[in-house]
Amino acid sequence: MKIHAALLAAVTFTLFSAGTVSASANWLQGSATDRWEEYCKKGGSKLAVPHICFTAEPALFDKVVANESNFRGFKTAVGEFVIIYDAPETKLVTDRYTIRVSPDKGECSHVTLGHNGEDPYEDITLCGWDYWVLPAYLWE
Questions:
Q1: CA torsion, points 52, 91, 134, 41, in degrees to nearest 10?
Q2: Conformation bin of residue 22: beta by default, left when phi > 0, alpha when psi is -120 to 50
Q3: Which of 81, 99, 103, 117 could be a cystine partner for 75, CB 3.0 to 4.6 Å?
Q4: What is the predicted pLDDT for the residue at 99?
């Protein structure tokens, strides 16, 4: 009986923990076959994977609110980064703004930008290795 109670408690804790840790900013470590360049450079092997490439100042990375963001991506030391579409709520949230990514047709993806909690005011589609130079107000 004690074993069953301990097992039930462990399973309950695991399920509860898994349900509460859904949002996260996940900057991945690059490898030879999976890195920023594979998504964001002409001839990259991941161009068909839904994603958006960005250029910003590295200061933007300090503004990311990890527990409200939900994405996987790669970044470079000079401010280039890619957000890979994973799920309907793929987003990067900063202290004031939200960037959302969703798939579009072919090698294209859709991205929106807006103030947190408001309708987006930027709405564009980018394809393959095209990238968006983000406005400076995002990190200033």
A1: -20
A2: alpha
A3: 81
A4: 96
Question: What would the pLDDT profile of 44-85 be if each residue is shown by its tens digit?
Answer: 999 999 999 999 999 999 999 999 999 999 999 999 999 999
Residue type, position 136, single letter: A
Structure tokens at 70: 């939900």
Q: Is residue 30 within 8 Å of 74, Cβ to Cβ?
A: yes
Tell me the pLDDT tens digit for each residue of 74-116: 999 999 999 999 889 999 999 999 999 999 988 899 999 999 9
Q: Distance (Å, rounded) from C-alpha 83 to C-alpha 91? A: 8
What Cα–Cα distance (Å) separates residue 28 from each residue in 36, 84, 104, 121, 130? 10, 11, 23, 29, 21
pTM score, two decimals?
Answer: 0.79
Q: Which amino acid is residue 119, in one-letter code?
A: D
